[in-house]
Amino acid sequence: MTLGTTDFEDAMGEALRLAGEAAEAGEVPVGAVVLAADGNVIGRGRNRREVGGDPLAHAEVEAMRGAASSLARPNAHKGWNLADCTLVVTLEPCPMCAGAALQAHVGRIVFGSWDAKLGACGSVWDIPRDPHIGAKPEVFGGVREPECTRLLTGFFASRR
Asked: Is 60 a catalytic residue?
C-alpha cells in the first residue's frame, strides 16, 4: 500500500486541535500525535515549554513519550521502539525533535507547515534522510499546510 498526504488528514486535525490548546496557554501552537500501525492515536502532545519551564517540552517529544508509555508492557522494555508508528505534527520538526524521532525509531514523520528557520525534515536540514544515519523513516510534509501555517502566523502576529 502506498501512502500519501491525504491518509493523515484526520490525524492532523487532532494535532491542530492540540496546537490550538497550546496557543490558548500562551505556547507556540504546535501539536502532535503518534499513530499506531492500525491508525489509532496512542500518543498526544502539545508545546509546554513556557507552562512547564522545560526547554525540551516540544509537542513531538510529549507525543512520543505518550506513545512509548502506551506500548510498554509490564516487565518488557519495548515501549520506546516506535518503528511501526507515525508521528504527525503541525510544524516540521526541529533538529532536536527529528533526532528524537530517529532515536525512537519512528517509522514515518508527517508534518503540516514547513519551518524555514529550524526545519530538520527537508527544509533547512534533512536529518531523517542523512546518509550517516541508519534509520530512514518516511517523511511527508505539507499535510493541511494552510491551516497549520495560519495558526502559527496568527499566533505570532498577535504577539508583535
From this structure: yes
